[in-house]
Amino acid sequence: MGRAGLTAERVTLAGAKLADEVGLEHVTMSAVARRLGVKDASLYAHVRSLEDLRGRIALLAADEKTIRIADAIAGRAGKDALVAYANAYRSYAHEHPGRYTATQVPMRIDPELAAAAPGPRRAVELTYGMLRAYKLDEPDLTDAVRLVRATLHGFVSLEAAGGFAHARPVEESWTSCLEALHASLRHWPSRREGDPS
């Protein structure tokens, strides 16, 4: 394959596929060039640097993950929405481990690209929207968003690293975690302030 048809989108997708196969940390411009059948220098007409490529992978992944979550929670509310959201989040992390990592590590992303990408902004809106059924006000709502993110990211990261070696099936622990998360959201601590019981 020559340079014909090479675009920033094709380079980004090739990098994203490679990240899923070998890990984001092992994605290099040379490896992506080999995958596309071009010389390294050809890539620089479409992406400025490895950092730029990884930023583009992060934005692609954020868009994909957000679309999956939005489809999963459409028409749902409360616990049903929470479970659908969590399952979509986890399945994306399982299927696209390199892309998922790109959405979780700090990196500098071109401000123009970031402004044009709906994924990160939509992800925040979806999370806040999903939690509306729990009737939390600020600052509790933001704290709840952080709790959801920490719980889901913590679970899928430990799972990916082989951190759940206990005999208990991981699926049962996942279900229990979501039940506990739902209970925490329903009985948020600030609601009990001043409650003599």
UniProtKB/TrEMBL annotation:
Listed PROSITE patterns: HTH_TETR_2
Query: Which Pfam families does the protein's record reference?
Result: TetR_C_33, TetR_N
Q: Where is the HTH tetR-type domain?
A: 5-65
Q: What protein is this chain from?
A: TetR-like C-terminal domain-containing protein
Q: Which organism is it from?
A: Actinomadura keratinilytica
Domain of life, per lineage: Bacteria
What positions does the DNA-binding region cover? Answer: 28-47
SUPFAM superfamilies associated with the record: Homeodomain-like (SSF46689), Tetracyclin repressor-like, C-terminal domain (SSF48498)
Entry annotated with the keyword Hydrolase: no
Lineage of the source organism?
A: Bacteria, Bacillati, Actinomycetota, Actinomycetes, Streptosporangiales
Q: Which UniProt keywords apply?
A: DNA-binding, Transcription, Transcription regulation
